[in-house]
Amino acid sequence: MTTLELDGEHAGGQFLRTALALSVLESRPIRIENIRGDRPTPGLGHQHLAVLETMAELTDADVSGADHGAETVAFDPGTSRLAGGEYAVDIGTAGSVTLLFDAVLPLATVLESPLSLTVTGGTDVAWSPPLDYTRYVKLPLLRRFGLTATIECERRGFYPDGDGRATLHLAPSEIEPLDAPSLVERPDVAGLRAYSTEAAALAEQDVAHRQAAGALNRLGLESVGTETPRTDSALAECEVVERIETTAASACPGSAIVLRLESEDGVPVAGCSALGERGVPAERVGEDAADAANQFAGSEAAVDRHLADQLLVFLALAGGRVRVPAVTDHVDSSCDLLESFGVPVVRVGEGTGETAVVAVESGDEVGEADGV
């Protein structure tokens, strides 16, 4: 099959991850130039290289350019059917574990037997979804459409040391069209779950509890000391369904909080998160996550910004429609990428500054013509 030439000059790491997944799903060799071309440090970072090497190992692919800093990569998947098995990957830095999992998830549709992938790196780091976001927001949503996947965490990994360890368990799956009404016309947010985590080194400062308290007070759901909860919060009428505060083993100090917003029937709608930073009070970290949740609740988007980008490959697989917060550069480049693989993407509302619907008609998805 002819190699598909792709240009990543105006795209980031998601472009690489999605391109590799689609290459496997369609059994089509690709060549990507100008990888992460508009980033301050273009080319393959450690986490991007780990994704490339992992995808190559899973599919017995032929690869050139698998070097740190490389800006051109060629990838020719050896097979579109994965045998499953157990694999281990060490990113070697605090590179994102969740983004590596993100690249592998679509391969569930071509798995012949269960796969377990254990990755060492950063579980809760900047510029990527925290581990609890993937576990409690993204995966439960995708399970509604047929994905069989879970994540186990052995150790948290924060910046700069990383050294967290988590395992993705993935089983053969058939993805159904993402055509639920709730993905286009968002249901009312009726419930909230808070997942607040601290490294063991921060336990004496009660960081996990303070993060959760700061978030819930900001949302008008709990009083903190003498501080009165907000009454103008868009989520002040939500029920706090669950509040989990965790002290976790970790190689270095760090913290994270994830707020899951859900509908009346408990279906996840969105996730908002924040990471602890040196010198930033734990309460403020929680407030940052709460501010993002309030902003989402005040919009008409049906999914949050992370899902807006990461659900597009599943639209390519099965078709469907998703109302995204906006056609960001990430969403735009992902749509262009799908079109490069022959997926007819429709964007409605683009350029209005408001939400937009991204749609792929079921039956036009990647791989149908080849029986994938």
Automatic annotation (TrEMBL):
Subcellular location: Cytoplasm
Entry EC no(s): 6.5.1.4
Example of a GO MF term: ATP binding
Start and end residues of each RNA 3'-terminal phosphate cyclase domain: 11-341
Entry's Gene Ontology cellular component terms: cytoplasm
Alphabetically ordered keywords of this record: ATP-binding, Cytoplasm, Ligase, Nucleotide-binding
InterPro entries: RNA3'-term_phos_cycl_insert, RNA3'_phos_cyclase_dom, RNA3'_phos_cyclase_dom_sf, RNA3'_term_phos_cyc, RNA3'_term_phos_cyc_type_1, RNA3'P_cycl/enolpyr_Trfase_a/b, RPTC_insert
Main localization, broad class: cytoplasm
Top-level taxon in the UniProt lineage: Archaea
Catalytic activity: a 3'-end 3'-phospho-ribonucleotide-RNA + ATP = a 3'-end 2',3'-cyclophospho-ribonucleotide-RNA + AMP + diphosphate
Gene Ontology BP term (one): RNA processing
Record domain RNA 3'-terminal phosphate cyclase insert: where: 185-293
Binding site for ATP: 102, 306-310
Keyword Ligase attributed: yes
Active site: 330 (tele-amp-histidine intermediate)
HAMAP family with a match to the protein in the record: RTC
General function of this protein: Catalyzes the conversion of 3'-phosphate to a 2',3'-cyclic phosphodiester at the end of RNA. The mechanism of action of the enzyme occurs in 3 steps: (A) adenylation of the enzyme by ATP; (B) transfer of adenylate to an RNA-N3'P to produce RNA-N3'PP5'A; (C) and attack of the adjacent 2'-hydroxyl on the 3'-phosphorus in the diester linkage to produce the cyclic end product. The biological role of this enzyme is unknown but it is likely to function in some aspects of cellular RNA processing.
Family: Belongs to the RNA 3'-terminal cyclase family. Type 1 subfamily.
Protein name: RNA 3'-terminal phosphate cyclase
Organism expressing this protein natively: Natrialba magadii (strain ATCC 43099 / DSM 3394 / CCM 3739 / CIP 104546 / IAM 13178 / JCM 8861 / NBRC 102185 / NCIMB 2190 / MS3)
